[in-house]
Amino acid sequence: MKYELFLSGLVLTVLGIEPLIYFAYSLYRKRTWRVCFIDKVTMVSL
């Protein structure tokens, strides 16, 4: 019984943290994309 409670708590914790990790990853991807996009626009305008 102790192990089932531990595993269910672990699964619920991971499921609770997953949206935060996805949100941080999406912010990082947007930042990388914007930097590359601005560089390309600058090169074209030059």
Structure description:
The protein is mainly α and 46 residues long. The protein has a domain at 18-46. Helices cover 96% and strands 0% of the residues. The chain is built from 1 helix and no strands. The protein has one helix at 2-45. The longest helix has 44 residues, at 2-45. The termini are far apart. 0% of the residues are buried. The mean pLDDT is 76.
Q: Quaternary state, please?
A: single chain
Rounded to an integer in angstroms, the radius of gyration calculated over CA atoms is 20 Å
**Structural class, from secondary structure content?**
mainly alpha
**Helix-strand topology string:** H
How many E-type strands?
Answer: 0
Largest sheet: none
Question: What's the helix and strand layout?
Answer:
Blueprint: H1 2-45
Q: Brief overview, please?
A:
By secondary structure, the chain is mainly alpha-helical. The protein contains one helix and no strands. Helices cover 96% and strands 0% of the residues.
